[in-house]
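#onboarding

Welcome to the new folks! Below is a worked example of what a typical request in this channel looks like: someone posts a single protein sequence, and someone else replies with the predicted structure as tokens. Don't worry about understanding the tokens yet, we'll cover that in week two.

Example request:
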Amino acid sequence: MPEKNTLPLKDRMQIARAQMPERDSAARSRSFEEVNLGLTAEAALAEATRCLACAHPACVADCPVGVKIKDFVALAFAGDYLAAAAKLREDNALPAITGRVCPQENQCEGGCVLGKKGAPLAIGYLERFVADYERQSGQLGLPANAPSTGKSVAIVGSGPSALSAAGDLIQKGHRVRVFEALHEIGGVLIYGIPEFRLPKSIVKNEVDNLRRMGVEFETDVVVGKSVTIDELLASEHFDAVFVATGAGLPQFLGIPGEHFNGVYSANEFLTRINLMRAYQFPVYDEPIYDCHDRDVIVVGGGNTAMDAVRTARRLGARSATLVYRRSAAEMPARAEEVKHAREEGVAFHLLTAPVEFLGDEKGWLTGARCVRMELGAPDASGRRRPVEIAGSEFVLPVNVAIIGVGTTANPLIQSTTPGLKTTPRNYIVADPETLHTSKRGVFAGGDIVSGSATVILAMGAGRKAAASIHAYLTTGEW
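Example response:
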């Protein structure tokens, strides 16, 4: 049993929440090195001391993957960081990742009792600390696998939902093979999140940990083209398939001028930066229209838009500006990311929307005609609807425009899998509890079912899918 925290509760509540050390904003605005530096051991101990060890911890109920937060924090308080990391891995296959990119403020930390009268426990910071300690120690606490069941599962995609499901299924004794269309494993964790927020080495380390557990990975396999779902079940002899391909088909604004050179989707822009290593220029050739000394705007207000505009700033943009049609209060990006962007010199044009892109006779982008907006009544999202202000048009000088207003489902698997039911927007229909699709033996979860969401919600779907797949493989019931 770990050493018990005997400090009175009222004294714990007086301890200030740990602050995350950060790289200097001026230096980091031109660097792809990680912004957040991680807690020291002393800061981690002080933070773990704050935990009230609730009898019925709401933080656990609010965690999409059900991490035993109270238990791992108690082990961290006792200084047994390896045991704390092992406790995390019982429910979370990617703790060093979620400790960096999970929006804890809206989930586990949102349920923390400490937050009712002050700052909630910094669960994400502690999660990152123990996961990083484990990695740096070289003493990996992987959970044991059950004896082999003789059953095999194919997982399509290698993003957070896929990796989470793989971690659970391999522990249950099934053979697991992950198929990825691109040449690197990690899905959105690799191609969608910038190096300064989530270093690629962290993702690769977590993937290697799954390899050590026995998960098999195969890259450059486009399921729906290289092999179909039906072929995986028949000629490839998999007993179940989990479709976790995400929702990576970019959406555009549908305004005149989007055809001009210099207009990107945020997906393409970030993929070229991350997967093709433009952030390591000149070691790697820069596979994008150069942002250096150019005026760049990013349209949108979510985390992807924030990633894109902060990336443009690091690539040497003369100006890097976020254009968002609502106010800061409605912006869905994490507060920390907005704070970092402002510190790094990103400009914000709020309550603003482009209505046309302008270009020169050679087809290159030169500007964005925009209008001012005001907020009206709430729409279906619960946020107040932006309404155009008549006569408010103005032109922003722009050389590069990056559209980060969301994504939708890529239709490849749906179009090549007879009998697979989809929604009118081409998402796969899956039972919300079992994640069964309309096709026996085929499960689906994450963004390909729910639409774009967070890493941790996708991981929660992966865990739910793994439990359901295990039940199907052991009972045969559908």
